[in-house]
Design the sequence.
């Protein structure tokens, strides 16, 4: 009975231990940008590393460069298809008319705000004052000033990290899987882990209008969920992260009403 | 029957583990690394060629951009250029490759990053009594880079965690095949792995001390000053702990750095070994004080506001071993005033009175001295002190209030 049950258990374990999750929040009044808009992408933060046999993450410069190039290409193609005009800033001194320190301040402020969004929207520490009102965070005057100085409509902050299981890590998982047949079942030592998040800031109002987090990963080394190093994997990530921007709740309700009226 | 013998082995195993841990604990003072054995492992203009090191450097690019643009930095060009010159003086073959940043953090600390940029905390500049001491700390940090410690530690950790993962998997599978439970051994091995990582980290620190003191002495700084730093730090921590009714942490098996006491002793032995008879060694105290002079009030102000009167008093008294002055007396008074124990008010008043006797007394010393005179009913003298304060600081935020006090 034990022998027969095992393959099924292993199959269930494999199926359950890996997944892609995405969860987005938007301002109540948010409408996804479309038509002729100008989007500023601030220093996309990309790192790709390899998981060693022992579970440490070894950053890989070559993979990171590859992934960054692929992500930027995918992002440009995606936004152009929507009518957007994208500028990607790689270094803080590359934005004409804006000082390095000024841009750094906006970035740091955004980082703090993002942390707060994650804390109160994703990690369950809901704030009573921000319940059922969508995404209610702002970068304030600093972001508005950035918009006025540069003429951009939106700023997008983006983070992507991908950890790919190394050969040794996969072998360890295979060993753990083999152990299942003699009663020591440990295939789920931890495999690929990907974490991406993005926040969209309206530079006319300074408000964070949209936020999304994508996590993808597997407890079993060797199973992949889109490899950021490849153009396909990068495009898949950009699509998961930014492809399905939902309008805010108020706008969705409006649209529903309009649709009913038309009927 | 067998279950019982397994129990026995498990108990003896844990007992053995405890003995091993105790042995490691007493063995925390590792063998001294001798300065003459320390040679730089890199040359000028080093760039990484191995994949893992390249990855580490790439990550650090962004970190350095963040540090370099941080609004916590003190950017006074006179002081930052001074630090640059110091690291170039004690930086061995990589002298021209280092970058150094001064962070406004009132803590005794400095650190080196894998790509060769160092961050020095302002609290360090407060505590150093002369240039030789500061050069010693910077030489230690440069030593980490010259001996390639970051990548070596990384590789050590990678190797040990690899071995541990494979071994514990093998123990699980082997144990299952043999019908024995080896989980206790795996846990002990895990503890052993962790302890060995901490031990490696302490070895790297000992190497950096030895490399640092060698380069410092070669540059003509008095090498004994490096040991004195630790003597000062131990004194400060003891004073701080005593005030709070606690004991100073004396080092253990979970420490990344060797204990302060063992560093002090080892560095003293190093200094004696390195001192060449007849060669002239300097500590450049005057040059040091002249350079940090403009920010010294800021450094002292940060310290007394840490609410650590034991440490603050010790630091001020240590600096005063090179001579009291108005600035140090004023901040001594601030320590008492902020501590506010019975009798501290009088102590503070005495310090302010002593401070204003020196020509370098800060404006605030005159202000507080004036207030204490006023309390004693010495109105005429108080008016004089307030006038002096307003003359030194005409735009003081409380100028109107002080003017009113002086008039009443």
Sequence:
């Amino acid at each position: 009975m034990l022998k027969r049950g095992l393959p099924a258990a292993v199959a269930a374990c494999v199926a359950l231990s890996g997944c892609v999750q995405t969860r987005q929040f938007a301002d109540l009044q948010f409408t996804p940008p479309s038509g002729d808009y100008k989007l500023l992408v601030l220093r996309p933060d990309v790192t790709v590393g390899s998981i060693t046999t022992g579970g440490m993450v070894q950053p890989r410069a070559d993979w990171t460069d590859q992934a960054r190039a692929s992500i930027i290409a995918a992002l440009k193609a995606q936004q152009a298809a929507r009518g957007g005009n994208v500028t990607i800033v790689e270094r803080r001194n590359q934005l004409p008319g804006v000082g390095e320190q000024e841009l750094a301040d906006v970035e740091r402020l955004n980082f703090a705000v993002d942390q707060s969004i994650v804390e109160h929207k994703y990690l369950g520490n809901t704030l009573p004052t921000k319940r059922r009102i969508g995404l209610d965070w702002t970068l304030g005057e600093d972001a508005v000033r950035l918009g006025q100085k540069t003429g951009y409509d939106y700023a997008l902050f983006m983070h992507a990290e991908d950890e790919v299981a190394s050969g040794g890590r996969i072998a360890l998982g295979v060993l753990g899987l083999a152990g299942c047949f003699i009663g020591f079942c440990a295939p789920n030592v931890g495999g690929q882990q990907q974490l991406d998040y993005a926040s969209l800031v309206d530079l006319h109002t300074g408000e964070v209008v949209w936020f999304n987090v994508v996590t993808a990963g597997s407890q079993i080394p060797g199973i992949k969920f889109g490899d950021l190093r490849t153009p396909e994997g990068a495009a898949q990530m950009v699509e998961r992260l930014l492809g399905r921007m939902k309008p805010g709740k108020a706008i969705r309700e409006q649209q529903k009403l309009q649709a009913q009226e038309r009927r | 029957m067998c279950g019982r013998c397994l129990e026995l082995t498990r108990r003896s195993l844990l007992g053995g583990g405890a003995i091993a841990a105790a042995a490691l604990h007493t063995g925390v003072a590792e063998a001294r690394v001798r300065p003459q054995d320390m040679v730089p492992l890199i040359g000028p203009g080093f760039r990484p060629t191995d994949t893992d090191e390249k990855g580490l450097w790439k990550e650090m690019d962004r970190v350095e951009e963040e540090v370099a643009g941080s609004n916590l930095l003190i950017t006074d060009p006179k002081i930052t250029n001074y630090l640059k010159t110091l690291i170039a003086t004690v930086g061995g073959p990589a002298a021209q490759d280092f970058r150094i940043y001064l962070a406004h953090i009132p803590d005794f600390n400095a650190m080196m990053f894998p790509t060769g940029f160092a961050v020095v905390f302002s609290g360090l500049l407060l505590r150093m009594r002369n240039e030789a001491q500061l050069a010693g700390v910077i030489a230690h940090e440069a030593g980490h880079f010259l001996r390639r410690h970051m990548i070596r530690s990384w590789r050590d950790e990678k190797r040990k965690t690899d071995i541990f993962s494979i071994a514990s998997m093998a123990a699980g599978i082997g144990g299952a095949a043999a019908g024995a439970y080896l989980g206790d051994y795996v846990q002990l091995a895990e503890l052993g792995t962790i302890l060995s990582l901490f031990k490696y980290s302490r070895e790297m620190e000992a190497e950096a001390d030895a490399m640092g003191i060698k380069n410092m002495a070669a540059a003509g700084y008095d090498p004994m000053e490096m040991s004195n730093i630790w003597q000062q730090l131990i004194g400060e921590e003891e004073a701080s702990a005593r005030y709070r009714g606690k004991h100073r942490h004396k080092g253990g098996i979970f420490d990344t750095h060797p204990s302060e006491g063992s560093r002090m002793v080892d560095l003293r032995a190093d200094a004696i070994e390195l001192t060449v008879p007849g060669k002239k060694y300097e500590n450049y105290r005057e040059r040091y004080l002249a350079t940090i002079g403009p920010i010294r009030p800021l450094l002292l102000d940060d310290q007394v506001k840490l609410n650590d009167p034991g440490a603050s008093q010790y630091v001020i008294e240590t600096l005063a071993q090179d001579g009291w002055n108005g600035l140090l007396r004023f901040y001594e008074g601030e320590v008492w005033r902020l501590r506010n124990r019975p009798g501290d008010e009088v102590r503070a008043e005495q310090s302010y009175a002593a401070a204003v006797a020196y020509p370098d007394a800060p404006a605030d010393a005159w202000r507080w001295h004036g207030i204490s005179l006023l309390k004693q009913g010495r109105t005429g003298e108080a008016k004089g002190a307030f006038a002096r304060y307003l003359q030194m600081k005409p735009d003081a935020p409380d100028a109107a209030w002080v003017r009113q006090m002086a008039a009443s």
